[in-house]
Amino acid sequence: QKERSRLPNEAGTTRKKRCALGEMMQHWIIDTDLGGMPSWREAFPGVRVVAQLNQKASLSIGDVIWCRLRPGEAVDKALAGLDMASGHPVVVLSDVPDASLVIESLTAGAAGCCNSRAAPEVLRQVAAVVSNGGLWIGQSLLKRLVTSTAKSYGQPVKEAKKYQSQLRMLCRAP
């Protein structure tokens, strides 16, 4: 196993070096199917798929926790037992994602929500965003947010659309 790089932070202690593509971090996926999906393994070759995280799990700074949400499962049940204040970003992998589920996941403390069948490239982008402190909300919810924000401030929707791509890049920037 590769040794992980450590960098000094402002307090003089060390933290794990983060990489935009996730090579330096461990990914933990909580799912009842321990085989995992092929796209997960392609996105994160060293991924660990577990039925639940316990205190024996050797989480390191920068590790990302992913929780699969199957149809009919409640977000709070899927995230139960996770310490959302631990500093480890949590992403909900939903089999049936929609805007209300994304909002519910973020409200529960998750850093993002995406389709459990997302392409490996998308999963790596999500990991890069959340591991650098960002939120992953998806394009459709982002469009709704920009449009409703523009309306609430009295800006024409056409005016808001020109800022949409800039906001999308800002939300996803590592």
Kindly describe this structure:
The protein is built from 6 helices and 7 strands. With 174 residues, it is an alpha/beta fold. Helix 5 crosses helix 6. It is globular, with a radius of gyration of 17 Å. It starts with 5 loop residues before the first strand and ends with a helix.
What's the structural blueprint in terms of helices and strands?
Elements: E1 6-8, E2 14-16, E3 27-30, H1 38-43, E4 48-50, E5 64-69, H2 75-79, E6 90-94, H3 99-107, E7 112-115, H4 120-131, H5 139-152, H6 157-172
Helix pairs in contact: 5-6
Short description:
This protein is 36% helix and 16% strand. The protein has 6 helices and 7 strands; from the N terminus they run βββαββαβαβααα.
Strand order of the largest sheet: 4-3-5-6-7
Helix-strand makeup class: alpha/beta
Radius of gyration: 17 Å
- Which H/E pattern describes the elements? EEEHEEHEHEHHH
Number of helices: 6
* Fraction of residues in β-strands: 15-25%
